[in-house]
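Data availability (excerpt). The following record was deposited with the supplementary files.
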Amino acid sequence: MSEWSEGAAGPDAEAEERAARRGERAILLVLATVQFTSIVDFMLVMPLGPQLMRTLGIDPQRFGLIVSSYTLSAGVAGLLAAPVVDRFGRKAALLVLYVGFLLGTLFCGLTSSFPMLLLARVVTGAFGGILGGMALTIIGDVFPDRRRGAATGALMSAFSVASVVGVPFGLELGTRYGWQMPFRLLAVLGAAVLVFGLRALPPLRGHLDTRPITGRALARTWEALAHPNHVRAFALVVALMLGGFAVIPYISAYLVANAGVAEAELSWVYIAGGVTTLVSSPIIGRLVDRFGKLRVFWIVAPFSAVMMFAVTVLPRVGIATAAVTVALIMLANSGRMIAAMPLIMASVEPRLRGSFMSVYSSVQHIASGLGAYLGGLILVEAADGSLRHFPRVGAIAVAATVASLYLAGRLRPAATAGPDVSADADRPLGHAIEAAATRAIEPY
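Predicted structure:
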């Protein structure tokens, strides 16, 4: 039950309701700013790729390690945290995780070598990778059902703000003053958020589980991991994340090295992508509600494969063509997750949903990290600074997408044993939940 009252009978009910709303708004502001800083920190590394490779003197393989270290660390940390995270108050857990995240971000802003930056990203990922799930958990604890959808949508608006404002501003700051500067600014902003969170968040300890961590909790986690339908869902997310992150981290480096886009122009590319995603996400959500999850996925996913391969063979073009290409990639990749996430959630038995999501988040992060690392292994920097073999990486993204089309068709609704997931009623799951899923899971 929420620690913020929803009102009570009697003459003071209206005043109590107003007080509860004020408390909820303060909590939502804390969570949204935490989400904003963590998303900007994660996303910013990718467009900073050209500068990182140049100033640190690293090749695509080592840049891939910088990207994948965050997600791999987040995946492992999520698995380790799953059995114990409910044994602490939500406020304490969120703020401790946020302190660790901010220390990692500050470390990124103070280092100037590849080994130290790699270590900083491991630390940042270990804490930052769990923050998004914790924020959504607090939404579930604090907000009553009739206001939870709106709260989730407001929380996930942090992704749009990060895409349209945070990342381009950080990229411009990094271009002018060095790649460390945006991380330093994020750490300062986060420190202010931390102080506000200490005052605004209630303890949120009503969920505490004081029982020893014995076989029961571990068995529930294993059941979520080994359930045949869940295995198919995990396979689907592996295909989506591995294929996408084999290409996405290297787009900015390829645009600068091969397509002739200046580093100073990259911020316009990401502004275009962020605005496109902001507009397209609710439209795709409504299409999913109207025409069905699987049908929309089977349309949008192949389009994402075409666009990811297209960017890997892009010749020297102007900034306008590059911006349109990246915007379409971001539209397609976010769209396929808007369609895929309701498919996945419908395949999970309600009693296992909490354990499933803990494992799912870890699988998603680890698959993303492996994709980024795989892309770095294939790419080679030529003597003239251009990147070679990017089309091979694009072919992997296409193959993974083809696999995802098959895997999506193999998912079954948890409540039925019907032969085809498309036979599901495809009931609307709510645009806010769909937007939350895509933005929490995939940054493009």
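Summary of structural features: The longest strand covers residues 380-381.
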